[in-house]
Amino acid sequence: MKRCFWILMMFVCGTCVYAQISSDIRPVVGVAQFTSETDSKYAGLVTEKVVEMLTNTKRFQVVDRTSHDKIKEELELQKSEAFLDSKNLVEQDIAVAAEKLITGHINKIPIYAMKNANGSIKGYKGSVSFQMKVVDVATGLSTEAVSFEGKASDLMLSPESAVNQAMQSLQDEIYEYFKKNFPVSGKIIKVLKEKKDKVEVVLLNVGKKQGVNQGDRFAVQYVEMLDGEPYPVDLGEIEVVKLSGEAFSECKVPSKMGEELASRLASNANIVCKMIIK
């Protein structure tokens, strides 16, 4: 009897944990350890900074592959070949359930020790140049590699702080890269306001967690399957008027698309809302 009780408890607890994990609808993105043209001991700092920036967007569940590789040394990445061979990385990343994988290759990390007149070191300056691309784990297809070149840092107390500042100079550029390659997409889960067969306000299942802000706009599409292929039809645009909690957004629907949207929702059509990148 006791054994049955504990089995039941384990099942319930496992179900609860699964429910908590699956409730986070943010895409899972892995970041592989960046390869390097030279064996620089500061190469890891570049990967760590990209992981930090990706995490700070609050739009993704980030799988830090730098930690994953330490745990599973048998999946150690090759050097430059690993960056070029997307399939090799994809096969490895299935183990951590990432939908997309960010890979990178560092071209150079010049570090300069700045000296005083007597030869003693007064500080360090550094810069960084690297490429990034995004690999789709399911298909193995990747985007074109995009180059990033950080500004030379100020005089810093350590080589590490010089590299970090050089990376920080790229923050806005990298955030734009994330926006372009990972557009926010959501679903209409509830009609909040309706008048005379026209939808006026809807609730999306994306919000602060995904980096949505008040005033953001979403393109609404009805997706129909034709000959096994998705055929999207534009319905119009909706605007976020209120963020509800961490995971929802209330959006205003223009009068001209209210009736058609109501009809599509009533027929359980597949409707996708994609954030418009400004």
From TrEMBL:
Residues 1-19 form the signal peptide. It comes from the Bacteria. InterPro entries: LpoB. Keywords: Signal. It holds the Pfam family LpoB. This is Curli assembly protein CsgG. It comes from Barnesiella viscericola DSM 18177.
